[in-house]
Amino acid sequence: KAGKVSTAIPLYERIIQNYPNSAIAARSLHTVGNIYLAQGQPERALQYYDYLLYTYPRWSGVNMARLDRFRALSATGKKRQVMRDAIPLWEASNGQPQVRVNLAAFMAGIYGGEGDIDTGFDWVAAGFSAARTPEENKLLSQACLELLKNTNEAGIQRLYRKNPSDFMKVFLDYRLAQIDMDKGQQDTARNRYRELLSAHPSHPLAPELQMALRGAPPPSADTTRSAAIDPGRIGVLVPLNGT
User: Rounded to an integer, what distance in angstroms lies between the CA atom of residue 139 and that of residue 134?
Assistant: First the structure.
């Protein structure tokens, strides 16, 4: 946490060697793999992930480690392998919503990068079925916005024809409103924003709808993370007298 990574890694290595029969060894392997991945060394990270999965297949955090291994594989250009193994990980992580939500958001980015918006959208929808917290909903919401941000009207209509849930249709309607705004049809776009917000006030997309109605540009994923809006928070202004 102090940023002394060069000192931390040998300590983790010592833990791995001295306590091979403890879950702390598996956790240390996972941590070192994540450190190397964050440092832009995915090949080195894969060595730790692979050893972890081989040596501790029954560790409670193994599915999250498998997901982080996917991130490393993707960083080395092995996206096809990730696509092939993603469904087995989804099935293996039944009862682990955190793994499923993060996997769905990650796979939406993978397929979006390959231009397969339809499959990416399916992954987001599956992720929302597993989400349990506002943070997980926000992660998936941003993944969906990123996925659809360059999709044209024909692509949105194609997704409509797949008969998505009413919950997922909000994202499609929001994108259509953005397209209307880009066309200069501001009144049409604002009416769509207003109708969506009125019909879905607690939807994870509600903060973006509110800002769109105020005339603000749609936020990027990065700015939303740094200035998150909690729709469940109440602010109170209290007049005070005396000291």
Answer: 9
pTM score over 0.90: no
Q: What's the CA gap between 193 and 210, in Å, rounded? A: 8
CA torsion 219→215→229→220, rounded to 10°?
0
- Annotate 117-175 with DSSP letters as a single string: HHHHHHHHHHHHHH--SHHHHHHHHHHHHHHHTT--HHHHHHHHTT---HHHHHHHHHH
Q: 241 pLDDT band (50/70/90 cuts)?
A: confident
pLDDT band at 242 (very low <50, low <70, confident <90, very high): low
Residue with tokens 């917290």: 133
CA torsion 203→195→229→65, rounded to 10°? 30
b vs e for 96-129, b when ≥16 Cβ sit within 10 Å of the residue's Cβ? bbbbbbbbbbbbbebbbeeeebeebbbbbbbbbe
Which token pair is 204? 């994870």
Give the list of residues 6+ apart from residue 180 with CB closer than 8 angstroms, or none: 186, 188, 189, 192
Alpha-carbon distance 146 to 19, whole Å?
Answer: 43
